[in-house]
Amino acid sequence: MRDLDELLTGRIGDAAADVARIPDFDALAARGRRRTTVRRTAAAGAAALAVVTVIGATQWLGGGDPSSEPGPVAPPTSTPSAPAEPKTDHGTGPISDARAEAIVSNPAATLFSLTVDPDDPDSRASVWQLCPAQCDNPKYAVAITDDGYTTYAAFRLANPVEVRSAGSGRFLAERWDPGATPFLLDADGTGTAVVADDTEAPLSAGEVVAAVHGSGVPIIGLLAVDPGTGAAHPIPLPSGVATWQQDGERISFLDYNGPTARWTDDGGATWSSHPLDAENLLTQLVPSADPDRHAVVAGGDGATLFPFNVVHRWDGDGAVQRFDQSSSPQAYIAHQAVLPDGRLLIDVEDWSDGDAPTGLHVSAGDDWTRFTPVRLGAPFDREPAQVLGIQAHHGVLTIDAVTADGAVHRSTDAGATWQPLVVR
């Protein structure tokens, strides 16, 4: 049976013998031998962080090229109170992924993405990028923790991946290879292949949602995954998925045929829909901490920036409104969310005139055409907040942002107050 390193580096053609059937596509369901790594003690100290945009990757987690290792790792600035004991895997002996640990703990590594379990903030997954020379061959690793990085397990990545929380210190890592199923990565160092059958069924209690990516279309299926075993099944979908999100019990996605917004509150058993007047515009779902208010933003193709042209809003009473945004000046946004009080929060990266203030802005109540800058608390009262991500979960909106010197902070009150967040 193939070991974890082979599974995580393999391309689809290498795993033909391990293919499982899902309606309308073939998905990898490689059954990897469960392995563990040494739980490393996190190194403290400052690190230069950078925020970059996730791009589509064609490889999966893996050992990478053993001939090109990262440079020497600076020693930790603090001494652990007690060394972590090596983990064993049914008698195979201790297993340690030293190359992944070398990337994560290297002061030159930059934070690529951060995922925090909304139900347990001590469970976190941080993806790190290390760029030797001119960054023509970057190296990646993900650090998984369930204790706020007192200890963590490090996994080597061939390329960055989409990471989602699966609860209890486990995370789903979605591969970008067409038809490839995700892997579960555990804070104890275990990697588990998701194995999907072909029986469509709604999401059940305890299951988590993961996407299967396609070729030519962004997503070709949503899986309901048992985070304890890795067993999975497809969720019934009415049409093609361009992008999706989950806010508590609600699963939403944008149908690229239309475009149309669709959502379910019963795990996929039934679906509601709303056609969008957004032809020839790019659309994005808006995370919502207001259970009765949901939205989609739309904009033209701004290459590296997303123009904020239109936002559609529908409320629990069925009322639908369209808000056309000003183009004088034009705002370019990176993140957006509905606050618990129903206002729209946007993260403005730039303006067409280059003069207006950037950063977080909030709507004037229900009027989603007028926005004012948010007055942020320390440490962002004296410097701009570089937003890493915004997440809505059961009526709570969390914002993760990084300071100029690389410190990550989290807010749950729309930026009024911030708490430091350890990320490795």
Topology:
Blueprint: H1 4-9, E1 19-22, E2 25-28, E3 40-41, H2 98-105, E4 110-116, E5 124-130, E6 139-145, E7 151-157, E8 162-167, E9 170-174, E10 183-186, E11 191-193, E12 195-196, E13 208-213, E14 219-225, E15 231-234, E16 241-247, E17 250-255, E18 260-264, E19 272-275, E20 282-286, E21 293-299, E22 306-307, E23 310-315, E24 320-324, E25 331-338, E26 344-351, E27 359-364, E28 367-373, E29 386-393, E30 396-402, E31 408-411, E32 419-420
Parallel strand pairs: 12-15
Antiparallel strand pairs: 1-2, 3-7, 4-5, 5-6, 6-7, 8-9, 9-10, 10-11, 13-14, 14-15, 16-17, 17-18, 18-19, 20-21, 21-23, 22-25, 23-24, 25-26, 26-27, 27-28, 29-30, 30-31, 31-32
Question: Would you give an account of this structure?
Answer:
The chain is mostly beta strands and 424 residues long. Among the domains are: 44-75 and 89-193, no CATH class; 276-424, 7 Propeller (Methylamine Dehydrogenase, Chain H), CATH 2.130.10.150. The chain contains 2 helices and 32 strands. It has helices spanning 4-9, 98-105; strands at residues 19-22, 25-28, 40-41, 110-116, 124-130, 139-145, 151-157, 162-167, 170-174, 183-186, 191-193, 195-196, 208-213, 219-225, 231-234, 241-247, 250-255, 260-264, 272-275, 282-286, 293-299, 306-307, 310-315, 320-324, 331-338, 344-351, 359-364, 367-373, 386-393, 396-402, 408-411, 419-420. A hairpin with a 2-residue loop joins strand 16 and strand 17 (250-255).
